[in-house]
Design a protein that fits this description.
4 helices, mainly alpha, 9% strand, 138 residues
Amino acid sequence: MNSQDFLTLNLVGAGAFVVWYLLSRGGSKNPTRLDMNAKDSAPPLINPEPAASITQEVGPVAATRPAVHPDLAQRKAKNLNVIFSYNSHTWDAYEVLGVPAGASITTVTEAYQTQIRRCEKESIEFFETAYQAILKKT
């Protein structure tokens, strides 16, 4: 078998595969239509409770308290960012050190040490201030 016969055989095989693929798809199918007016079949995760303490009515509907997931009802929201002031500008300490907000102390310490090794002498105080702000917060 020479190279021309091999090429012809491959082209015939590839053509047969393409024809088989196109025929096996079953032709064109209509896309599924989304009915925006249909009723939602999933049960609600949280049922908003009517606010007994609110006496105002907002239009024709009485005001309701915002729905809060039962697992989160007892907790206060935790702010992960640490903002500090340096040269009369405000900075996010986690962003300055290049770590995600709320990162562990070990991650913050490693990032701080890396920044100190790489930065210029004038910037050391800036990174030190960011690191100290995170340490004071935790």
